[in-house]
Amino acid sequence: MAVQTDFIFRSKLPDIYIPKHLPLHAYCFENLSQFASRPCLINAPTGAVYTYEEVELTARRVAWGLSQLGVQQGDVIMILLPNSPEFVLAFLGASYRGAMTTAANPFFTPAEIAKQVKGSKAKVVITQASYYEKVKGLEGVKLVFVDSPPEGHMHFSQLCEDSGDIGEVKIRADDVVALPYSSGTTGLPKGVMLTHKGLVTSIAQQVDGENPNLYYHSEDIILCVLPLFHIYSLNSVLLCGLRAKAAILLMPKFEINALLSLVHKHRVSVAPVVPPIVLAVAKSPDLQKYDLSSIRVFKSGGAPLGKELLDTVSAKFPHAKLGQGYGMTEAGPVLTMSLAFAKEPMDVKAGACGTVVRNAEMKIVDPETAISLPRNQSGEICIRGDQIMKGYLNDPEATERTIDKEGWLHTGDIGYIDDDDELFIVDRLKELIKYKGFQVAPAELEALLLSHPKISDAAVVPMKDEAAGEVPVAFVVRSNGHTDTTEDEIKQFISKQVSGCVLQKNKPSILH
User: Fold this and answer.
1) Which residues pair with 416 in a beta bridge?
2) What dihedral do alpha carbons 324, 328, 331, 337 form, nearest 10°?
3) How far apart are CA 237 and CA 219, in angstroms?
4) Dist CA 399 CA 405 (whole Å)
5) For the chain, which terminal residue's Cβ has fewer other Cβ atoms within 10 angstroms, N or C?
6) Beta-bridge partner residues of 363
7) Bridge partners of 178?
8) What is the mean pLDDT of residues 344-360?
9) Residue with more model confidence, 32 or 351
10) Rounded to the nearest 10 degrees, what angle do helices 275-283 and 256-266 cross at?
11) Are strands 469-478 and 455-465 parallel, antiparallel or unpaired?
């Protein structure tokens, strides 16, 4: 009997040495003395600049402060904040402590926040006063505020003020450091366990080596407008920026003119974005008011970037490298990246998502037979390497459905690899809706709709949208005797239980 040959694809770039033994924080601040005085974080609202030495020292103090709050190695803290220096310091401080961080979307409802706190068993929530109403009902959780704390609660500065030494925490490479939540290939949100080794590997795959796939350098000013609670921003913007010794410009929320002004003022050189931001930049009537010539890289991810939009931006930024990558939280998150971003860039095709990252393997399999497919044949995209997740938190069954016995992570996305090793995504096996780069699980919305006493059946499907990529649309069947149920009534019912970003454009249709 003939032996089945696996068609396995690798990067066009050579593999590199990756120091997988280092904890994440030690890897990011390696050789600190050589760049201690360089700017590390720039807080856009205030203009305050924090050097690498200041950030590293303060992060260690936060680790001590967390230990005094009772956070032990292996415990979880939650960060509920917009992009800010405190977000970065809390995440790095937890890493030094040997703790895990789960970050939540500040637009989440109290119920969504409580669900993630309970699921992750977070002991501390670091947030701001404007979100107090969302977190005040949490039981058994200590609240820390980065601004005016309500009576009886701690200010974040108190975590940083004590210079006590936490000592050397023995962190294993396989210890979990980040716990983002993802719906995976299907179903409800689950905690994704990303380890020190996994994140170090993912960052190195992007920015390390003599010819890095993603060329950041110490003179760069990297725009961080994408929310740090999203793994794309946490990994490819913040952590990759720290490893490259670049300056990271923290913007708490997206507003097009504010973004253009910051690029102009700070001479931003790298702009990691998502397609809705690319679209806003391309369509802005105020584009000519600002000098944006400093941008050398426009890096898109989170959702597909169409050829027409890519061409429009290319025409307006002729000197910038444009392209996209492809990621999934469970994959660490980066699977492929455009080689246009490399230190020695290569030509890429429009619509391609790049080539597989270094020190990893990719294959395309038949969804029915799991047999690997050759070039130019569409199938499910699978990735293998040290960068992928350890598994889903407390969910071995979902882990086994996603990572097979040979270590291949099955993405639920359909694509093919062409003759030039470039990946093209053509469809999706998984049910998720991608709203502005965020995952919306139809099953979660359908379950909420079915909990309404006047609804007997419901289905949620994606609808294409130029600005958002996709928006969820609900079709519902009213229960007998409730023909007067209105769309507004249903929207109000849902909006009290899920974040506004999920249903901002949702238009439930009522079917008799």
Assistant:
1) 424
2) 0
3) 15
4) 11
5) N
6) 382
7) 101, 194
8) 94
9) 32
10) 80
11) antiparallel
Angle of the 52-68 helix axis to the 85-97 helix axis, nearest 10: 60
Q: How far apart are CA 387 and CA 336, in angstroms?
A: 12
Q: Confidence band (pLDDT; 50, 70, 90) for 512?
A: very low
pLDDT tens by residue, 86-109: 999 999 999 999 999 999 999 999
Please report where in the chains the tokens 């380890």 appear, as a residue: 195
Q: Give the other-Cβ count within 10 Å of 483's Cβ.
A: 10
Beta bridge partners of 469: 435, 465
Q: DSSP 3-state assignment of 363?
A: strand
* Secondary structure (3-state) at 367: coil
* DSSP state letter for 239: I
What would the 3-class secondary structure string for 10-30 be? Answer: CCCCCCCCCCCCCCHHHHHCC
In degrees and rounded to multiples of 5, residue 101 shows phi and psi of: -115, 130
Structure tokens at 237: 């913007």
Q: What is the DSSP string of 132-152?
A: HHHHTT-SS-EEEESSSPPTT
What is the H or E stretch that residue 326 is in?
strand 321-327
User: Whole-angstrom Cα distance, residue 502 to residue 512?
Assistant: 25
The label of the residue with tokens 């909006």 reads 495
Q: How far apart are CA 490 and CA 343, in angstroms?
A: 52
Whole-Å CA distances, 380 to 120, 338, 420: 30, 20, 19
Report pLDDT for 292. Answer: 95
* Residues linked to residue 459 through DSSP beta bridges, in sequence order: 475
| 279-297 confidence digits (pLDDT tens) | 899 889 999 999 999 999 9
CA 272 to chain centre: 12
Per the structure block, which two tokens stand in for 457? 């059946």
Q: What are the residues whose beta carbons fall under 8 Å from the beta carbon of 331, sequence distance 6 or more?
A: 383, 387, 388, 389, 409, 411
